[in-house]
Amino acid sequence: MNPLKRTAPALLAIAALVTAAACSADVRTAQPAPGRGTTETSVHPRATDDPSPAATGGAGQARAAGASLRRLQAQPLRITDITPMGEKTEKIGVGSPIIVTFDRNVKNKAAVETVLQVQAEKPVEGAWRWVSDRQVVYRTRTYWKPHQKVLFSARLSQIAGNQGVKDVSRRFAIGTANVSVVDTKKHVMKVRRDGKTVKTIPISAGRGGLVRNGVDVYLTTSGVHLTMGKKPVETMTSAWMGVTDPKDPLYYKLEIPWAVRISSSGEYVHQSAGAYQFLGRSNQSHGCVRATPAGARWFYGIAQRGDVVTVTGTKRKLDWRNGWSYWQLTWTQWKKGSALPNGVPTPTPTPSAPQDEMS
């Protein structure tokens, strides 16, 4: 089964981004799903001791709570999730991030960054950015070179006090360089593969006109999106804007073919549900990029997670925290999220394959 069809969206869409969704996806599919960036990772559960005094009872409540907390803190730091999946499961796009989630908040982020290594067959500069206390993301300065392997290694046993945990690694396969540009003013999407324009698809983008909290949620967001997943049929409803009554004139519930997600807030490239006369001529959607049946099916067929889809021509800017929209930050801005000076790790020798291969 194609992993793009079964993997939940990445973590980073905050609640405001979901409620101000630009497209028509069922809000249930737009919600972030912590810890489900991949189905391959061995999940190491945290301790379930309840440190509250009420859980112990009697005169030893405080002592028991303190001991429980110390046991929790003494456990080694582990990785619970790595996105994307390994080379045997999927090929990924040239914009792909590496997203690493830990089983608890990381206090010494610099020490952790130092033991995280990324080595590509065709090297390009990259850096880590902490997007939360337990999640760190690796982004390259420029897009990955296509058709190569990239090895991620986490030598967690080298962290002081963490010697008991196994090191892990995963090898990724970078596929074809799929880079698309959606021009919302000319109403076309041009797709380049490995530098060559191979398809021009008539589209219809967000029409605008519905303002919520000062944001026109019917506008497609302009900026550098990455494909996050896809479904052959996606249920899209008006629930994302709070409309659930079928009698409401704004209500809808549609089964949409060939849906490729490009944000956490509900934007997709998908087949238009009729109204083909507007494709290539005007913007009529709720924020998604509607395409012809043939164009949408073709795009769905080539889509890899991490492919680049740049949208231009609208007044609504894509937030870098909305899905995998990390390319919205400049390289200087990106590196400021690292715990290391200038975002650059100290040089390390070429690693051998760690013992616990998560691939």
From TrEMBL:
Per the record, the pathway is: Cell wall biogenesis; peptidoglycan biosynthesis
Give the highest taxon in the source lineage. Answer: Bacteria
Stretches for region Disordered: 27-67, 338-359
Q: Which CDD domains match?
A: YkuD_like
Acyltransferase recorded as keyword: yes
Instruction: Note whether Acyltransferase occurs among the keywords.
Output: yes
Q: Which residues form the active site?
A: H270 (proton donor/acceptor), C288 (nucleophile)
List the signal peptide residues.
Answer: 1-25
Q: Name one Pfam family in it.
A: YkuD
Instruction: Give the UniProt keywords, A-Z.
Output: Acyltransferase, Cell shape, Cell wall biogenesis/degradation, Peptidoglycan synthesis, Signal, Transferase
L,D-TPase catalytic domain location is: 178-312
Q: What name has this protein been given in UniProt?
A: L,D-transpeptidase
Question: What is the species listed in this Swiss-Prot or TrEMBL entry?
Answer: Sphaerisporangium rhizosphaerae
